[in-house]
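note to self — DONT lose this again. spent like an hour looking for the file last time. sequence + predicted structure for the chain T wanted, 130 res
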Amino acid sequence: MADVNRGNRPLSPHLQIYRLQIPMISSILARITGNALLVGALVFIWWLFAAAAGPEYYAFANGLVTSWLGLLVLAGSLWALYFHGLAGIRHLIWDSGHGLDLATSERMGWVVILGSVAATLVTLVALAAG
């Protein structure tokens, strides 16, 4: 039988000795933004149903969506859309066998993060101006 005396050693690399890396962070964020996009889509569908339900309910739903909290959620959903899209393009590049070395993977992670923030800011400024 195997030795069951494991002592005080960790069973796997632990957060105390393992450093988070940009490709790992961007991969985790891709999963989180995918779920956030689902929530944003549900809010949009609820808003559409409210529009079909009548003017009183639409006024209520539209008031929530256009409140400061609703606009913050919409801005977050916009960032999630850009991030998830750029992360998907990155995965397509990886699937083709390119960019798999550590330096390129890290650079691509930064491009996804900074590109999504820049695209979100440009879109928000364009929406505010128009």
